[in-house]
Protein 1
Amino acid sequence: NTKAFIFDLDGVIVDTAKYHYLAWQKIATELNIEFTHEHNELLKGVSRVRSLDIILELGKVEASQEDKNRWLVQKNEDYLSYLVDMDASEILPGVFPILKFLKENNQPIALGSASKNARPILEKTGLLSYFDAIVDGNDVTNAKPDPEVFLMAAKLLNIKPEDSIVFEDSVAGVQAANIGNMTSVGIGEANTLHEAKYIFKDFTAIDTNFIEEIIRK
Ligand code: BG6
Ligand code: MG
């Protein structure tokens, strides 16, 4: 049996969600907008442009397109500064063994990320060669919870959506997988990700029996 295993990037493969948060927080602070960890959950899985709009809405701030563009550039420069020294040590615990297991079992693997910085991150962490397909923020027009990113990934792998498994740490991403008729696996807090079919606190909690069972189904 062959299934498609589709991984989100930020917060699933690498712990970059914290860097996105820090970079947005800096902008929010400059604009005098309160921006908590809970607010940040709304931004996970969401595109850069939409994230800024959400922050501005939180602070009820109206801004010109010029200002917005400046903040978007500033946010990304700040974010990228956190990634300069990134290497394989930033791969989240348990991820590498699962990727290896999937490869050994000839299961196709794809990336399904909203980020436009996905490829350099996979390169820096040495994971690029594990992915048979990469769909990222440069490829899609509709952001999660629209399933476009995952549907495109499954299509590239030549696997039907119902035979696809999506690993996601964001609410929007879990919803996208569900709407796309895929099996959603939430990585994180059960309270936050309750819409997922399965939930694990991280990849160390996923054993190979679980993966084998999914392949067999
Ligand atoms: C998602 C992150 O993976 O990518 C979001 O969860 C981020 O926090 C989005 O805003 C876009 O990323 P980037 O790297 O293109 O700004
Ligand atoms: Mg994520």
Note: The two ends are 8 Å apart (CA to CA).
Protein 2
Amino acid sequence: MRIGVLTSGGDCPGLNAVIRSVVHRGVVDHGDEIIGFEDGWRGFLEGHHRPLTLDSVSGILAQGGTILGSSRVQPSHLRDGVERARQYCSDLGLDAVIPIGGEGTLKAAKLMSDAGLPIVGVPKTIDNDIAATDVTFGFDTAVSVATEALDRLKTTAESHQRVMVVEVMGRHTGWIALNAGMAAGAHAIVVPERPFHIEKLTAVVRERFDRQKKFAIVVCAEGAKPEPGTMHWEEGTKDIYGHERFTGIATQLSRELEHRLGKEARPVILGHTQRGGTPTAYDRVLATRFGWHAVEAVHKGAFGHITALQGTKINLVPLAEAVAELKTVPQERYQEAETVL
Ligand code: F6P
């Protein structure tokens, strides 16, 4: 079979492991021909592709980023994008396309699948917010990076008796904030699912200093917001694709906390560091399993699905179901963390 593969949207540790796995399973076990499209859907629509062989994926398992490149371009952004994609798929004689991407990419994949393209999606995002799968690869790496940063920040915070307000990724959901915050024993965790109350946050940090503790660590997801009207708040803007560009919750919160507490506070924005570098062993394994199962789905003709981790198994979930809703942090998880405001 002739199978196209592309990586689209924000990159994520483990993408190369999926690409490698697709090539290994496809070429070695099924005798497939694998075509890699460059820079996500952009390369697909503009005809930039190259053959992927065992040699071209040699040594990439532990590499961060994506050897194919990525972009946030989706066919649905272009008026005739879906039609062009369909035409291109048939001109190239592709039997299947495996897009590896997050929420936006899977929505685009659904549109293309509805238009008749043979698609099997692979979910990825460090945000872990795709409901169909228990976990997305990249998340474990991001949580490990954030946890290490929080551990390191404690010692410098203590030396200077400061409040560190640490911003992690998470546009719509607080999975990274919650897990890294719990792993590092943060004193307050602020997530997008629950607007925070500045008075309550201030009280939590003040109470800590009242107990003669010398520092406090507040972890916040970039998309978190205060309850409306409770503090001065600068809203973000939109980027060229309509995604929210945040103004920096850490900067706004640290300024406010410093003012209210009379204690030095510093913002730390971990940003894209969380997406860079080598994937953890967990992410390499999950990504490899997703690649393997995506090729199997292609050979079974199970188009219009994504691979998903459910319990310990990799199952196929219809694209329509996969994009229906985001996976937010459930109530019990907040309760376990105790420090969520
Ligand atoms: O979707 C993953 C994510 O890491 C979000 O948490 C973040 O808002 C976004 O990507 C930022 O991506 P970029 O700056 O690359 O567009």
Note: The mean pLDDT is 95.
